[in-house]
Amino acid sequence: MFDHLNAMPEDPILGLMAAYRKDPREQKIDLGAGVYQNEQGQTPVMRAVQKAEDRLIEQQSTKAYQGIAGDPDYNQRVLNLLLGEEHKTLADGRAVSMQTPGGSGALRIGAEVIRRANPDARLWVGIPTWPNHIPLLGSSGFQIEQYPYYNQNNHRVDFDSMLGALEQVPQGDMVLLHGCCHNPTGSDLNHEQWQQVTELALQRGFIPFIDIAYQGLGDGLDEDAWGLRLMASRLPELVIASSCSKNFGLYRERTGSTSFICSDAKQPSIVLSQAMSIARQTYSMPPAHGALIVSMILDDKTLRAEWKDEVDEVRQRIQAMRKLLTDGISNNATSQDFSHISQQKGMFSFLGISKEQLTRLREDFGIYIVDSTRMNLAGINSGNIDYLCESILKVLSV
Ligand SMILES: Cc1ncc(COP(=O)(O)O)c(C=O)c1O
After folding, report:
1. Average pLDDT of the segment spanning 43-56
2. Strand ranges inside the chain, DSSP E
Protein backbone atom coordinates (compact mmCIF):
# COMPACT_ATOMS: atom_id res chain seq x y z
CA MET A 1 0.00 0.00 0.00
CA PHE A 2 2.78 2.46 0.77
CA ASP A 3 4.30 2.14 -2.73
CA HIS A 4 1.63 4.58 -3.89
CA LEU A 5 2.93 7.33 -1.65
CA ASN A 6 5.32 10.03 -2.78
CA ALA A 7 7.62 11.72 -0.31
CA MET A 8 6.38 15.11 0.86
CA PRO A 9 8.61 18.12 0.16
CA GLU A 10 10.80 19.11 3.08
CA ASP A 11 9.58 21.96 5.28
CA PRO A 12 11.70 24.93 4.10
CA ILE A 13 12.46 26.15 7.66
CA LEU A 14 13.49 22.67 8.83
CA GLY A 15 15.65 22.32 5.68
CA LEU A 16 17.36 25.61 6.51
CA MET A 17 17.95 24.46 10.08
CA ALA A 18 19.56 21.24 8.86
CA ALA A 19 21.87 23.26 6.58
CA TYR A 20 22.76 25.51 9.54
CA ARG A 21 23.66 22.53 11.70
CA LYS A 22 25.91 21.12 8.98
CA ASP A 23 27.72 24.43 8.44
CA PRO A 24 31.19 24.10 10.02
CA ARG A 25 31.83 27.88 10.28
CA GLU A 26 32.21 29.11 13.84
CA GLN A 27 30.65 32.51 13.27
CA LYS A 28 27.46 31.15 11.70
CA ILE A 29 24.17 32.68 12.94
CA ASP A 30 20.73 31.08 13.00
CA LEU A 31 17.93 33.60 12.52
CA GLY A 32 15.56 31.01 11.05
CA ALA A 33 14.14 28.74 13.74
CA GLY A 34 11.09 30.15 15.55
CA VAL A 35 12.18 29.62 19.15
CA TYR A 36 13.42 32.14 21.70
CA GLN A 37 17.16 32.15 22.36
CA ASN A 38 18.84 33.91 25.25
CA GLU A 39 22.09 35.89 25.28
CA GLN A 40 24.00 32.57 25.24
CA GLY A 41 22.09 31.32 22.21
CA GLN A 42 20.16 28.77 24.26
CA THR A 43 16.44 28.12 24.57
CA PRO A 44 16.35 27.75 28.34
CA VAL A 45 13.80 26.18 30.66
CA MET A 46 12.33 29.25 32.36
CA ARG A 47 13.20 29.53 36.06
CA ALA A 48 9.57 29.56 37.21
CA VAL A 49 8.85 26.59 34.95
CA GLN A 50 11.75 24.64 36.42
CA LYS A 51 10.53 25.31 39.97
CA ALA A 52 6.94 24.38 39.16
CA GLU A 53 8.13 21.25 37.39
CA ASP A 54 10.25 20.18 40.38
CA ARG A 55 7.28 20.72 42.69
CA LEU A 56 4.95 18.87 40.36
CA ILE A 57 7.19 15.83 40.15
CA GLU A 58 7.51 15.75 43.91
CA GLN A 59 3.76 16.05 44.43
CA GLN A 60 2.37 13.86 41.66
CA SER A 61 0.76 10.64 42.75
CA THR A 62 -0.65 9.32 39.47
CA LYS A 63 -0.34 9.30 35.71
CA ALA A 64 -3.96 8.27 35.26
CA TYR A 65 -5.98 9.83 32.43
CA GLN A 66 -6.83 13.44 33.07
CA GLY A 67 -9.91 14.07 30.94
CA ILE A 68 -10.72 15.19 27.43
CA ALA A 69 -10.80 18.90 28.25
CA GLY A 70 -7.55 18.72 30.23
CA ASP A 71 -7.05 20.38 33.59
CA PRO A 72 -10.06 22.51 34.66
CA ASP A 73 -7.86 24.88 36.73
CA TYR A 74 -5.55 25.42 33.77
CA ASN A 75 -8.55 26.17 31.58
CA GLN A 76 -9.89 28.81 33.95
CA ARG A 77 -6.48 30.38 34.62
CA VAL A 78 -5.60 30.63 30.94
CA LEU A 79 -8.93 32.27 30.26
CA ASN A 80 -8.19 34.77 33.04
CA LEU A 81 -4.74 35.44 31.58
CA LEU A 82 -6.21 36.09 28.15
CA LEU A 83 -9.19 38.18 29.16
CA GLY A 84 -8.04 39.65 32.48
CA GLU A 85 -9.77 38.47 35.65
CA GLU A 86 -12.24 41.34 35.69
CA HIS A 87 -13.51 40.86 32.16
CA LYS A 88 -17.29 41.06 31.92
CA THR A 89 -17.65 37.99 29.70
CA LEU A 90 -16.24 35.91 32.58
CA ALA A 91 -18.76 37.27 35.07
CA ASP A 92 -21.51 36.77 32.49
CA GLY A 93 -20.51 33.11 32.02
CA ARG A 94 -20.11 33.59 28.26
CA ALA A 95 -16.57 32.24 27.96
CA VAL A 96 -15.12 28.75 28.03
CA SER A 97 -11.68 27.33 27.37
CA MET A 98 -10.33 23.87 26.56
CA GLN A 99 -6.74 22.66 26.95
CA THR A 100 -5.18 21.56 23.66
CA PRO A 101 -1.89 20.13 22.39
CA GLY A 102 -0.12 23.47 21.77
CA GLY A 103 -1.34 26.49 19.87
CA SER A 104 -1.49 24.38 16.72
CA GLY A 105 -3.93 21.98 18.38
CA ALA A 106 -5.88 25.01 19.59
CA LEU A 107 -6.20 26.38 16.07
CA ARG A 108 -7.34 23.02 14.76
CA ILE A 109 -9.92 22.47 17.50
CA GLY A 110 -11.23 26.00 16.94
CA ALA A 111 -11.48 25.34 13.21
CA GLU A 112 -13.30 22.02 13.65
CA VAL A 113 -15.85 23.50 16.08
CA ILE A 114 -16.51 26.39 13.69
CA ARG A 115 -16.97 23.93 10.82
CA ARG A 116 -19.54 22.01 12.86
CA ALA A 117 -21.35 25.20 13.82
CA ASN A 118 -21.34 26.67 10.33
CA PRO A 119 -20.06 24.44 7.50
CA ASP A 120 -20.52 27.31 5.02
CA ALA A 121 -18.25 29.72 6.89
CA ARG A 122 -15.15 30.71 4.94
CA LEU A 123 -11.94 31.70 6.67
CA TRP A 124 -10.25 34.99 5.75
CA VAL A 125 -6.51 34.95 6.36
CA GLY A 126 -4.26 38.03 6.25
CA ILE A 127 -1.27 37.77 3.92
CA PRO A 128 1.45 37.16 4.86
CA THR A 129 0.82 34.92 7.82
CA TRP A 130 2.47 32.10 9.79
CA PRO A 131 3.20 29.54 7.03
CA ASN A 132 1.34 26.75 8.86
CA HIS A 133 -1.94 28.67 9.21
CA ILE A 134 -3.30 27.82 5.79
CA PRO A 135 -2.39 24.08 5.75
CA LEU A 136 -3.44 23.62 9.38
CA LEU A 137 -6.78 25.42 9.11
CA GLY A 138 -7.49 24.68 5.45
CA SER A 139 -7.22 20.93 6.00
CA SER A 140 -10.14 21.09 8.39
CA GLY A 141 -12.20 21.81 5.26
CA PHE A 142 -12.44 25.60 5.34
CA GLN A 143 -12.52 27.48 2.11
CA ILE A 144 -9.69 29.96 2.63
CA GLU A 145 -9.93 33.54 1.40
CA GLN A 146 -7.14 36.07 1.71
CA TYR A 147 -6.97 39.72 2.73
CA PRO A 148 -3.89 41.95 2.37
CA TYR A 149 -2.18 42.70 5.68
CA TYR A 150 1.30 44.11 5.14
CA ASN A 151 2.98 46.59 2.85
CA GLN A 152 6.44 45.23 2.00
CA ASN A 153 7.58 48.63 0.73
CA ASN A 154 6.97 50.75 3.81
CA HIS A 155 6.99 47.80 6.25
CA ARG A 156 3.71 48.73 7.90
CA VAL A 157 0.28 47.15 8.20
CA ASP A 158 -1.52 47.90 4.94
CA PHE A 159 -4.57 48.89 6.91
CA ASP A 160 -6.57 50.60 4.16
CA SER A 161 -6.33 47.52 1.94
CA MET A 162 -7.06 45.24 4.88
CA LEU A 163 -10.17 47.18 5.83
CA GLY A 164 -11.26 47.42 2.20
CA ALA A 165 -11.11 43.62 1.92
CA LEU A 166 -12.83 43.02 5.26
CA GLU A 167 -15.67 45.32 4.17
CA GLN A 168 -16.56 42.58 1.69
CA VAL A 169 -16.63 39.75 4.24
CA PRO A 170 -20.18 38.43 4.64
CA GLN A 171 -22.01 37.61 7.85
CA GLY A 172 -20.92 34.33 9.44
CA ASP A 173 -17.47 34.14 7.80
CA MET A 174 -14.43 33.94 10.07
CA VAL A 175 -11.51 36.38 10.02
CA LEU A 176 -8.17 35.16 11.33
CA LEU A 177 -6.24 37.83 13.28
CA HIS A 178 -2.95 37.67 15.17
CA GLY A 179 -3.51 38.77 18.78
CA CYS A 180 -0.02 40.30 19.03
CA CYS A 181 3.56 39.95 17.74
CA HIS A 182 2.44 39.18 14.21
CA ASN A 183 4.35 36.28 12.68
CA PRO A 184 6.13 36.87 10.27
CA THR A 185 5.93 40.68 10.02
CA GLY A 186 6.19 41.93 13.64
CA SER A 187 3.59 44.58 12.69
CA ASP A 188 0.53 44.64 14.90
CA LEU A 189 -2.71 46.57 14.69
CA ASN A 190 -2.69 49.67 16.90
CA HIS A 191 -5.59 50.40 19.28
CA GLU A 192 -7.47 52.52 16.79
CA GLN A 193 -7.15 49.83 14.13
CA TRP A 194 -8.38 47.14 16.52
CA GLN A 195 -11.37 49.38 17.23
CA GLN A 196 -12.08 49.83 13.55
CA VAL A 197 -11.92 46.09 12.81
CA THR A 198 -14.14 45.42 15.85
CA GLU A 199 -16.77 47.89 14.67
CA LEU A 200 -16.61 46.41 11.16
CA ALA A 201 -17.10 42.91 12.59
CA LEU A 202 -20.16 44.15 14.46
CA GLN A 203 -21.54 45.88 11.42
CA ARG A 204 -20.86 43.06 8.92
CA GLY A 205 -21.43 40.14 11.26
CA PHE A 206 -18.17 38.32 10.63
CA ILE A 207 -16.50 36.53 13.53
CA PRO A 208 -12.85 37.00 14.48
CA PHE A 209 -10.69 33.95 15.10
CA ILE A 210 -7.72 35.26 17.09
CA ASP A 211 -4.43 33.39 17.23
CA ILE A 212 -2.33 34.60 20.17
CA ALA A 213 0.94 32.70 20.42
CA TYR A 214 3.21 35.41 21.88
CA GLN A 215 1.30 37.08 24.74
CA GLY A 216 3.84 39.09 26.74
CA LEU A 217 6.54 39.26 24.07
CA GLY A 218 5.28 42.47 22.43
CA ASP A 219 4.43 45.16 24.99
CA GLY A 220 3.47 43.13 28.10
CA LEU A 221 1.05 40.42 29.20
CA ASP A 222 -1.97 42.71 29.55
CA GLU A 223 -0.99 45.13 26.80
CA ASP A 224 -0.68 42.33 24.23
CA ALA A 225 -4.22 41.15 24.95
CA TRP A 226 -5.72 44.63 24.45
CA GLY A 227 -7.28 43.93 21.04
CA LEU A 228 -8.54 40.52 22.06
CA ARG A 229 -10.14 41.94 25.22
CA LEU A 230 -11.75 44.74 23.26
CA MET A 231 -13.27 42.27 20.81
CA ALA A 232 -14.42 40.02 23.65
CA SER A 233 -16.25 42.93 25.25
CA ARG A 234 -17.83 44.30 22.05
CA LEU A 235 -18.64 41.24 19.97
CA PRO A 236 -21.17 38.49 20.64
CA GLU A 237 -18.88 35.68 19.47
CA LEU A 238 -15.16 35.08 19.24
CA VAL A 239 -12.80 32.13 18.93
CA ILE A 240 -9.30 32.34 20.42
CA ALA A 241 -6.37 29.96 19.98
CA SER A 242 -3.57 30.51 22.48
CA SER A 243 -0.20 28.89 23.05
CA CYS A 244 2.14 28.58 26.05
CA SER A 245 5.02 27.49 23.81
CA LYS A 246 6.72 30.88 23.69
CA ASN A 247 5.70 32.79 26.81
CA PHE A 248 6.29 29.78 29.09
CA GLY A 249 9.01 28.21 26.91
CA LEU A 250 7.03 24.97 26.91
CA TYR A 251 7.36 24.22 23.21
CA ARG A 252 7.76 20.44 23.39
CA GLU A 253 5.21 20.00 26.17
CA ARG A 254 2.46 20.98 23.71
CA THR A 255 0.45 23.34 25.87
CA GLY A 256 -2.27 25.50 24.39
CA SER A 257 -5.95 26.25 24.60
CA THR A 258 -8.98 27.08 22.51
CA SER A 259 -11.36 29.62 24.03
CA PHE A 260 -14.83 30.49 22.88
CA ILE A 261 -16.79 33.63 23.67
CA CYS A 262 -20.46 32.90 23.14
CA SER A 263 -23.46 35.14 22.79
CA ASP A 264 -25.19 33.84 25.94
CA ALA A 265 -24.41 31.84 29.08
CA LYS A 266 -26.13 28.68 27.85
CA GLN A 267 -23.83 28.17 24.88
CA PRO A 268 -20.38 27.63 26.43
CA SER A 269 -21.17 24.17 27.80
CA ILE A 270 -22.64 23.10 24.44
CA VAL A 271 -19.66 24.47 22.51
CA LEU A 272 -17.28 22.79 24.96
CA SER A 273 -19.05 19.45 24.48
CA GLN A 274 -18.49 19.79 20.73
CA ALA A 275 -14.83 20.66 21.21
CA MET A 276 -14.45 17.66 23.51
CA SER A 277 -16.07 15.33 21.02
CA ILE A 278 -13.61 16.51 18.33
CA ALA A 279 -10.69 15.97 20.70
CA ARG A 280 -12.01 12.50 21.56
CA GLN A 281 -12.20 11.58 17.89
CA THR A 282 -8.64 12.71 17.18
CA TYR A 283 -6.06 12.70 19.97
CA SER A 284 -8.49 11.84 22.80
CA MET A 285 -6.83 13.90 25.54
CA PRO A 286 -4.16 16.58 25.69
CA PRO A 287 -0.79 15.96 27.38
CA ALA A 288 -0.97 16.99 31.04
CA HIS A 289 2.52 18.02 32.06
CA GLY A 290 2.88 21.50 30.53
CA ALA A 291 -0.64 22.57 31.51
CA LEU A 292 -0.09 21.54 35.13
CA ILE A 293 3.06 23.66 35.19
CA VAL A 294 1.26 26.68 33.72
CA SER A 295 -1.65 26.22 36.09
CA MET A 296 0.68 26.09 39.10
CA ILE A 297 2.61 29.19 38.00
CA LEU A 298 -0.51 31.23 37.36
CA ASP A 299 -1.97 30.28 40.74
CA ASP A 300 1.12 30.82 42.91
CA LYS A 301 1.84 34.49 43.63
CA THR A 302 5.62 34.08 43.90
CA LEU A 303 6.01 31.82 40.87
CA ARG A 304 3.73 34.05 38.85
CA ALA A 305 5.74 37.17 39.71
CA GLU A 306 8.95 35.35 38.83
CA TRP A 307 7.50 34.18 35.53
CA LYS A 308 6.26 37.67 34.69
CA ASP A 309 9.77 39.04 35.32
CA GLU A 310 11.20 36.44 32.97
CA VAL A 311 8.68 37.28 30.26
CA ASP A 312 9.67 40.95 30.72
CA GLU A 313 13.35 40.00 30.36
CA VAL A 314 12.65 38.05 27.18
CA ARG A 315 10.72 40.96 25.69
CA GLN A 316 13.30 43.56 26.68
CA ARG A 317 16.15 41.46 25.31
CA ILE A 318 14.44 41.13 21.95
CA GLN A 319 13.69 44.85 21.89
CA ALA A 320 17.33 45.64 22.67
CA MET A 321 18.50 43.38 19.82
CA ARG A 322 16.03 45.03 17.46
CA LYS A 323 17.54 48.42 18.29
CA LEU A 324 21.16 47.25 17.99
CA LEU A 325 20.49 45.73 14.59
CA THR A 326 18.63 48.80 13.30
CA ASP A 327 21.38 51.14 14.50
CA GLY A 328 24.14 48.86 13.25
CA ILE A 329 22.90 48.78 9.65
CA SER A 330 21.26 52.20 9.36
CA ASN A 331 24.32 53.71 7.71
CA ASN A 332 24.42 51.46 4.66
CA ALA A 333 25.65 51.87 1.09
CA THR A 334 22.18 51.93 -0.45
CA SER A 335 20.62 54.19 2.22
CA GLN A 336 18.03 51.50 2.81
CA ASP A 337 15.74 52.28 5.75
CA PHE A 338 15.62 49.52 8.36
CA SER A 339 13.88 51.52 11.10
CA HIS A 340 10.85 49.18 10.96
CA ILE A 341 12.93 46.52 12.77
CA SER A 342 13.23 48.61 15.93
CA GLN A 343 9.56 49.61 15.82
CA GLN A 344 8.04 46.17 15.32
CA LYS A 345 7.10 43.68 18.05
CA GLY A 346 7.78 40.11 19.05
CA MET A 347 10.29 37.65 17.67
CA PHE A 348 10.03 38.34 13.94
CA SER A 349 10.54 40.99 11.29
CA PHE A 350 11.38 40.95 7.61
CA LEU A 351 14.90 42.15 6.88
CA GLY A 352 13.66 43.23 3.45
CA ILE A 353 16.68 42.54 1.24
CA SER A 354 16.81 40.84 -2.18
CA LYS A 355 16.96 37.10 -2.74
CA GLU A 356 20.55 37.42 -4.04
CA GLN A 357 21.60 39.37 -0.96
CA LEU A 358 19.96 36.77 1.28
CA THR A 359 21.80 33.96 -0.52
CA ARG A 360 25.11 35.81 -0.13
CA LEU A 361 24.47 36.23 3.58
CA ARG A 362 24.01 32.48 3.84
CA GLU A 363 26.77 31.34 1.50
CA ASP A 364 29.49 33.89 2.24
CA PHE A 365 28.79 34.67 5.89
CA GLY A 366 26.90 31.67 7.34
CA ILE A 367 23.87 33.77 8.31
CA TYR A 368 20.70 31.73 7.97
CA ILE A 369 17.44 33.59 7.30
CA VAL A 370 14.36 32.07 5.63
CA ASP A 371 13.59 33.01 2.03
CA SER A 372 10.88 35.53 2.91
CA THR A 373 13.70 37.39 4.80
CA ARG A 374 11.84 36.75 8.07
CA MET A 375 14.38 36.92 10.88
CA ASN A 376 14.06 35.61 14.41
CA LEU A 377 15.47 38.58 16.32
CA ALA A 378 15.99 36.36 19.37
CA GLY A 379 18.82 34.65 17.45
CA ILE A 380 20.88 37.84 17.90
CA ASN A 381 23.06 38.39 20.97
CA SER A 382 25.91 40.67 22.00
CA GLY A 383 28.38 38.03 20.79
CA ASN A 384 27.13 37.98 17.18
CA ILE A 385 25.56 41.40 16.59
CA ASP A 386 28.74 43.05 15.25
CA TYR A 387 29.43 40.23 12.82
CA LEU A 388 25.78 40.25 11.72
CA CYS A 389 25.76 44.00 11.06
CA GLU A 390 29.14 43.93 9.27
CA SER A 391 27.95 41.07 7.06
CA ILE A 392 24.68 42.78 6.15
CA LEU A 393 26.55 46.02 5.39
CA LYS A 394 28.98 44.14 3.13
CA VAL A 395 26.14 42.42 1.28
CA LEU A 396 24.36 45.75 0.79
CA SER A 397 27.48 47.45 -0.53
CA VAL A 398 27.91 45.21 -3.60
C1 LIG B 1 1.37 32.62 14.92
C2 LIG B 1 1.53 31.27 15.51
N3 LIG B 1 0.45 30.58 15.87
C4 LIG B 1 0.54 29.35 16.40
C5 LIG B 1 1.75 28.75 16.61
C6 LIG B 1 1.78 27.35 17.17
O7 LIG B 1 2.38 27.22 18.35
P8 LIG B 1 2.56 25.79 19.05
O9 LIG B 1 4.01 25.47 18.92
O10 LIG B 1 2.14 26.03 20.45
O11 LIG B 1 1.72 24.81 18.36
C12 LIG B 1 2.92 29.43 16.26
C13 LIG B 1 4.23 28.81 16.45
O14 LIG B 1 5.24 29.21 15.97
C15 LIG B 1 2.81 30.72 15.70
O16 LIG B 1 3.88 31.43 15.35
Report:
1. 98
2. 29-30, 95-100, 123-127, 144-148, 150-151, 156-157, 174-178, 207-212, 238-243, 256-261, 348-350, 367-368, 374-376
Please say if 301 is a catalytic residue: no
**Mean of pLDDT over the chain:** 97
Q: Calculate how far, in angstroms, residue 203's C-alpha sits from the geometric centre of ligand 1.
A: 30
Contact 297, 303 (CB under 8 A): yes
Task: Check 30, 71, 124, 130 and give the catalytic one.
Answer: 130
For 144-155, the pLDDT digits (tens) are 999 999 999 999
Q: What structural domains does the chain harbor?
A: 6-44+308-396 (3.90.1150.10), 66-299 (3.40.640.10)
Please tell me if the CB atom of residue 257 comes closer than 6 angstroms to any atom of ligand 1.
no
Q: Give yes or no for residue 104 CB within 6 A of ligand 1.
A: yes
Q: Is 299 a catalytic residue?
A: no
- 248 closest CA partner among 215, 283, 286: 215
Question: Is residue 63 classed as helix, strand or coil in its secondary structure?
Answer: coil
- For the segment 235-244, the average pLDDT, to the nearest whole number, is 98
> Given the CA of residue 104, which atom of ligand 1 is nearest to it?
11
Dihedral sign, Cα of residue 108, residue 78, residue 37, residue 372: positive
**% the chain with pLDDT above 90:** 97
- Region 311-339: what's the mean pLDDT? 97
